[in-house]
Amino acid sequence: MVKICCIGAGYVGGPTMAVIALKCPSVEVVVVDLNQKRIDAWNSDTLPIYEPGLDDVVKQCRGKNLFFSTKVDESVMEADIVFVSVNTPTKTTGLGAGKAADLTYWESAARMIARVSKSSKIVVEKSTVPVKTAEAIEKILTHNNKSEIQFQILSNPEFLAEGTAIEDLFHPDRVLIGGRETPEGQKAVQALKDVYAQWVPEDKILTTNLWSAELSKLAANAFLAQRISSVNAMSALCEATGANVAQVSYAVGKDSRIGPKFLNGSVGFGGSCFQKDILNLVYICECNGLPEVAEYWKQVIKINDYQKSRFVNRVVASMFNTVSKKKIAILGFAFKKDTGDTRETPAIDVCQGLLGDNADLSIYDPQVTEDQIKMDLTSKKFDWDHPLHLRPMSDTTTLEKVRVVKDAYEAAKDSHGVCILTEWDEFKTLDYQKIYEGMQKPAFIFDGRNVVDANKLREIGFIVYSIGKPLDAWLNDMPAVA
Ligand code: NAI
Prior knowledge:
Pathway: Nucleotide-sugar biosynthesis; UDP-alpha-D-glucuronate biosynthesis; UDP-alpha-D-glucuronate from UDP-alpha-D-glucose: step 1/1. By secondary structure, the protein is α/β, with parallel strands linked by helices.
């Protein structure tokens, strides 16, 4: 029986290993983490992350060939293949602060593998890492071990998206495996290929050299984020000219060379990966003496920041240039629908912007807890462009002005405006007539995800702002927003 151990029971490690266990009954999978609370949750009925379909997969295999444990050393020692799926956040201090990936967790995992191993192993980079990380990991493993033990490093970046993780893992567009071009390296590639081949068609398993696999993950995320920033840049121009971003992106996406996906205008992208991975790419470009290339990719993040502040400016400008002491409902806080993840969610910046203008916020999200929202809004925000400055935010002031409520109607009651910040399906079918009746007048809706039928809402009486779409006469009359 092949034994797999995965270090890191997070958004990637948990779902990925659960699917491997389900699809490969002859493989034993142990997912380990240092975080006892997280492991306890994986072993309970309330999993630590929300992901459609995940409960079902975990229930089918847990206790059979899928285990969650904090016995890190023991599980790594017994494994043939060790996946490393620890977090690789952006460094906040020291060399490369604000851009470089922080590999502290990765390095300590590698040192631990070297320390406890008593037999040869394949070590798989699952985390997104800078190109050439495998070389560093190889050095750590070989310099800290007995010579009779061999380690083969593979790069197997994960392309799942939160919210559709299980579907993505069941039917991936591709699985990418990079390895050394030596006979031993190729043998390791084949061993990992054999695992995936149990459910992924052969032609979707791509094999490359190590550096291509590492770089492809950063490149894919940079390209995806770039599409969002490109369409969001167009959305600003649409508002200025009377074009409609939905019509423009439909027309553009019909070009088969471009395609329709990732072309919706929105308040901006979020999530733990896009910004972090682009910054990582920017840093790698700078370190390789390519400032122009670095600047090109930086612009993707700058447009994203611009889009979030443009949204806040639009809200404030529309409401007579002041939201001070006005109740504003925030519908949706997660960075996208079908996840409770709030890492880098645009809602944090939008809410902080509105709080900065002294608004009272009433926030509802179907999957994000009150504690999480309050923590996100009071944590000092790390400013990627000025890493030494943390944007200050006083806890008491913030919390006094924030209420987290249990449904959209309660959030909207007595409010002056409603901001939709996550595209949860339930926001499409709310009883907007009822919401309108309960609100202060004029009643505003600011749709940061273009999910509502603006014309229907206008018939009810709302003043509606949809990103990138022709503006109501009301909004047109208000001062221009930057
Ligand atoms: P996460 O933060 O949810 O999970 C990482 C886990 O690793 C944490 O539970 C942490 O306690 C654990 N950990 C850290 N050091 C450890 C150690 N030495 N021993 C044992 N456990 C340790 O992170 P997430 O979102 O799962 O991301 C992991 C990696 O996968 C990152 O590099 C990320 O860029 C990449 N990735 C993330 C995707 C996503 O959608 N979240 C998609 C594709 C890749």
